[in-house]
Amino acid sequence: MLNSSSPAQKNLSEEDSSGSEPETDRFGFILTNGSTAGSLGPPPELVRQREAKWIKIIDQWDRILLKKSSKVKVQCQKGIPASLRAKCWPLLCGAANRMKQHENLYEAREANTLTGMV
Q: How would DSSP label each residue in 39-62?
């Protein structure tokens, strides 16, 4: 019969209780000041609220960025929902604007490459 308090199990339980390794959140950041952000992330209700706010921001991007850039900054600090990051980051870093400015750039380069190869 196996002994439930084997030396290996005692070592594991001692490490857990002694706090030798700092507690981290789901992204691997060390939790400080008694933070209780567990590995599960924010509650679903909060995620839905943030998604709704980000959808409004995305839909009215040009207007909101000009008038309420502080609102965008605050929302970024609160966190961009994972479901909307692919839409938000090109807007935030200016890539979406550059793509609009140079819509036909890729097609023009590809056409020049193809005609030069023939």
A: TT-S-HHHHHHHHHHHHHHHHTHH
Alpha helices in the chain (DSSP H): 7-18, 44-59, 61-67, 69-78, 85-93, 95-101, 105-117
Report how far residue 46's alpha carbon sits from residue 51's, in angstroms, rounded to the nearest whole number: 9
Residue 89 pLDDT greater than 70, yes or no: yes
- Taking the CA atoms of 108, 110, 111 and 117 in sequence, report the sign of the dihedral they define: positive
pLDDT of residue 37: 53
The token pair that represents 84 in the structure block:
């909307």
Please report, to the nearest 10 degrees, the dihedral formed by the alpha carbons of residues 40, 45, 47, 48 taken in order. 150
Vertex 65 angle, CA 61 and 69, to 5°: 140
Q: How far apart are CA 110 and CA 98, in angstroms?
A: 18
- Using CA atoms, how far apart are residues 116 and 118, in angstroms rounded to an integer? 6
pLDDT above 90 for 88? yes
